[in-house]
Amino acid sequence: MIRAAAISLAAVGPAAAEVPAPIRAEMIPVAQCWNVGSLSPVAALTSVTVAFSLSRDGKVVTDSLKMTAWDGTSEAAALEAYEAARRAILRCSQDGFDLPAEQYDAWKHIEMTFDPRRMEVS
Amino acid sequence: MKKLTHLLAGLALALGITPAIAQDGPLRIEITEGVIEPLPFAIPVFIAENAAAQEYAAQLSQVVAADLAGTGLFRQISPDSFISTVSNFDAPVQYADWKAINAQALITGAVSVAEGGRVNVKFRLFDVFSEAPLGDGLQLGGTTTSWRRIAHKVADQVYSRITGEGGYFDSRVVFVHEEGPKNARQKRLAVMDYDGANVQYLTNSASIVLAPRFSPTGDRVIYTSYETGFPKIYVMDVGTVQRRILEDQPGTMTFAPRFAPDGQTVVFSLERGGNTDIYRYSPGGTTQALTNAPSIETAPSYSPDGTQIVFESDRSGTQQLYKMPANGGEPTRISFGEGRYGTPVWSPRGDLIAFTKQHQGRFHIGVMRTDGSEERLLTASFLDEGPTWSPNGRVIMFTRSGSGAGGESALYSVDISGRNLKRVPTPGAASDPAWSPLLP
Which residues of chain B does A25 touch, with a Cβ-Cβ cutoff of 8 Å? Predict the structure, then answer.
């Protein structure tokens, strides 16, 4: 819905330039690097939220990575799940995410929640 | 590689939509899609720090690699693709070179052999994409004859640091070695490393032996032998191979023994006058019946906290699983699926019970919650039976037998996810595996 509204605004005139395309999740692709295969059964039932910052070239500021929340049965499992999430973010951001520089304020800080409980094998 | 897809299709990719300007707080994204693939790791041949270490360095790194890759959770990257070489244990890691070949974990090590035949191994584990060590470096030592154990301990450390759960490589398996045709099969007790190496025979083939089980400390084995002509329970010290009969009540048959977590109490089946019940042998030599029913009660297994016992019984008319307090008392049936259930074994984590299931002419190894819920079948074949848990509760080993007079028995293992089914190498036919705890 938001995306449709943006396109509509773009079509009506000069004001359209002030409404840039929204940042979409697929612009920050991490799922393809999130390997849940080595998670222990208990970690596979734990969701973790990881906060991190991006530099203007779309690369992760490594020191900024931190777990801000978790939901599961134990902190040990959360730390394990966090390590897998952290690896995913770092692997997929090696070359920097391709994000619009003019909207840096919109994506310089990310909070990403990894929830393996909501997945199924296809 | 299996791709995981979101239960709520379409939502995942849309969750990142957010106003681009005048945003308060961070951009929030939810990831509910991922992949299941073995984690790629690189393990350059460990550095031999002196001439005597040369022969061990390569073998140690091979065993570590085989342990990890054998879990199905890790994939070894071919050394042919390495860009960097590691010739100095303390040299800085060239992370870019390892990233370029997609190594997510890097294991480096060095080996030295001191005078007197002591092997010292030090290793480091690196998270390549984080460009940081994963835990501290560690040094392990032992005799040259125990180099495989040192390798298993290194692999256990790596496994544990990456997965967050305990390892299982430095462990042993006791089993029944079989020779000859099915109608005249000779059986011997044997122990081996979990991966089939270092087989040692504990008994000769003069009498049939069955169902060996390790004590909680791994130094003794309890088993059933027919050397008197009737099944009787024996306890053997694995180190000295000295054995003694546990319980000898004339006119009875005793079998299916298993140690309690205290390592002294034993629970077993006793047949008297055509009826089989479960009994407990306590330190001091007292024996007490825990069940008293006209049906057959057998295959008892303690919960890891020692408070409960799961067993099989045909009291309902078909073979099913029940659990009861460790001191006896009213059993509660926990299996309700179609088919017959047997040989239950409580997992070392305490959360699952593994079992054998027979249904529509096929045998399965499965797991269920301790209340019987969430039953999952992990295998299916002509005959799969007798599960045993790895020390960390992640893998199950069992016996698979072929059909017909020549059908051999072999040991197999499977991850509790149902993946990574594979045959465990043994010198011949084998059955009745029982996994030890992690070795000290």
Answer: 12-17, 29
- How many domains does chain B contain in total? 2
Q: Please indicate whether, in this complex, the C-beta atoms of A119 and B34 are within 8 angstroms of each other.
A: yes
Which residues 96-115 of chain A have a CB within 8 Å of chain B? 100, 103, 105-107, 109-115
| Cβ within 8 Å, pair B129-A113 | no
Answer whether B291's CB lies under 8 Å from B275's CB.
no
**Contact B125/B106 with Cβ under 8 angstroms?**
yes
pLDDT of residue B407: 77
Model confidence pLDDT, tens digit, residues A45-98: 899 999 999 999 999 998 899 999 999 988 988 998 998 999 999 989 988 999
Complex-level ipTM? 0.83
The yes or no reply on domain A24-118 and CATH 3.30.1150.10 is yes
Are residues B275 and B148 part of one domain? no
Which positions 173-232 of B are in contact with A (Cβ < 8 Å)?
Answer: none
**Domain encompassing residue B98:** 36-163
| Residues B238 and B227: beta-carbon distance below 8 Å | no
Query: Does residue B30 belong to any structural domain of this protein?
Result: no
E strand map for B7-130 = 27-31, 35-36, 39-42, 47-48, 74-76, 105-114, 118-127
Are B189 and B261 within one domain? yes
Across the interface, of B4, B25, B163, the residue whose CB is closest to A38 is B163
Q: Is residue B29 part of a domain?
A: no
Is the pLDDT assigned to residue B11 strictly greater than 60?
no
Between CA B43 and CA B108 the distance in angstroms is 6
